[in-house]
What we know:
33% of the residues lie in helices and 20% in strands. It is α/β, with parallel strands linked by helices.
Amino acid sequence: xxxxxxxxxxxxxxxxxxxxxxxxxxxxxxxxxxxxxxxxxxxxxxxxxxxxxxxxxxxxxxxxxxxxxxxxxxxxxxxxxxxxxxxxxxxxxxxxxxxxxxxxxxxxxxxxxxxxxxxxxxxxxxxxxxxxxxxxxxxxxxxxxxxxxxxxxxxxxxxxxx
Length: 162
């Protein structure tokens, strides 16, 4: 029996993600978590290019989720964030920052946009300033961060209580 999708409207925003493999994995995770939509912003690769050609790397890790999961491309991240805020979304950055709270303490409201940063540089200050909340996954080992696709899985499933 399939699980019902959550009553909340949750979207994922991926600005300037370099790896198509990470994008495919996040699309698959977002579909599994019942996310409403995934926004691909800036130079983040899309499942299909402007000529209608399939991105084979996304297809490889998404395993069909790229066709089932609603996604949209947005070139300008700042315009997208303004649009989401006007539509009533809480903008929540997933990033290590001084004002970040432990992700386990965060409870999403009715409309939440989770914003995941670039694999190497994270989210720039201009995006962080727009967010009403910054959440982070505590790191206990020697490495400072997780792969963005792994972090997305942890955040989505834990904060949505799946």
